[in-house]
Amino acid sequence: MAKQRESRWVKAVVSRIVRFVLWFVTKPDWKGTEHVPARGGVIIAANHLSMADPLTVAHFLYIGARRWPTFTMKDAIMRIPVVGAVARSTGQIPVRRGSTDAVKALHEAELALTRDEASVIFYPEGTCTRDPNLWPMTAKTGVARLALTTGVPVVPVAHWGEQHILPYGTKKVSLFPRKRLEFRAGPPVDLSRFRDQPLTGTVLREATEVIMADITALQARIRGEEPPAVPYDPRKARAEAARGGERRIGDASGKDGAAGASETAGTGEAEENATGGTVAEGTAPAGGETGANSENGKNSTGA
To answer: What is the CATH number of the domain that holds 178?
Structure first.
């Protein structure tokens, strides 16, 4: 028998407040809710556009699909007075990143899915997308691991519009006029070819790519656009930015070194006429060294 994870009265109060607020600021369009199973554990795998979308995804799941939303939440949020108490009372799962508690959180999520038959929302990307055009980016493998370990279905969900309420990286909230939000859920992701295979890194990465491909295809249908052939990879982008910064620093240093050497050589020629070149020989290396060390570059990469 499934365990009741949340307080019924807190659940009733919170859901009414969220519904009331979102009704005033959004115009949701929900499609594909029939793909979310009415009961039993299920992973809801969604793209992440904005810090506002946990509320809108929860709204979609609870009102549109009639399933109570359970999130894995940063431990810092759980420590906020009132917010933490509400989160715990509504069955949310705390995650303390970078510690052994992350493993504990994964175990809690497994129990929520298998023992409590909960619907747990995950953002496979782990954070808001950094893709310049807001397409889903490369993801972490945790959702694939959880799906293959528990055997529960993964329902892909794509959404679009929250970036107009609260763009990522800013604190500027735009509530009015009401924003149109579009949601589309798809059939459970087909992970059958990965079942009963050892959970190697290759298997988990390939399963993750399949999950993200389904989410991206759903978002492409919402937007009516062609997604990029290769998902944006923030690690590669940072590495390329770092290499570009190093090249720019090297180019600037080379130019300064050449300018210093040329200037010194010119001075040496003038002095060579009077001294026989001994000054030029001693000065040119010093000028080149000064030029090479005169440029202090600083490399900046996006998070």
So the answer is: 3.40.1130.10
Q: Which residues contact 108 (CB under 8 A, 6 or more apart)?
A: 93
Nearest-Å Rg of the Cα atoms of the chain is 28
Interatomic CA distance for residues 44 and 215, integer angstroms: 11
Phi, psi of 189 (to 5 degrees): -65, 135
Q: Which residues are within 8 A (CB) of 170 and not within 5 positions of it... i.e. 6 or more apart?
A: none
In a domain, 297, yes or no: no
Count of Cβ atoms closer than 10 Å to residue 3 Cβ: 11
Q: Which domain holds residue 244?
A: 235-292
H/E segment holding residue 30: strand 26-31
Tokens of 123: 């953002």
d(CA 213, CA 206): 10
Helix intervals (H) in the chain:
8-25, 53-59, 75-78, 83-89, 101-114, 142-150, 201-223, 234-275, 278-292
Domain assignment of residue 188, yes or no: yes
108: which 2 tokens?
């809690």
The two three-digit tokens of residue 87, written as one number: 């989160």
How many residues are recorded in the chain?
303
pLDDT in tens, 222-278: 999 999 999 999 999 999 988 877 777 766 666 655 555 444 444 444 444 433 443
Instruction: Count the Cβ atoms, other than its own, within 10 Å of residue 65.
Output: 24
DSSP element (H, E) containing 48: none
The residue among 67, 71, 113 whose CA lies nearest residue 90 is: 71
Report the range of poorest mean pLDDT among 48-52, 156-160, 274-278. 274-278
Q: Which of 232, 254, 272 is the last residue of a domain?
A: 232
The tally of CA atoms less than 13 A away on the side-chain side of residue 271 is 14
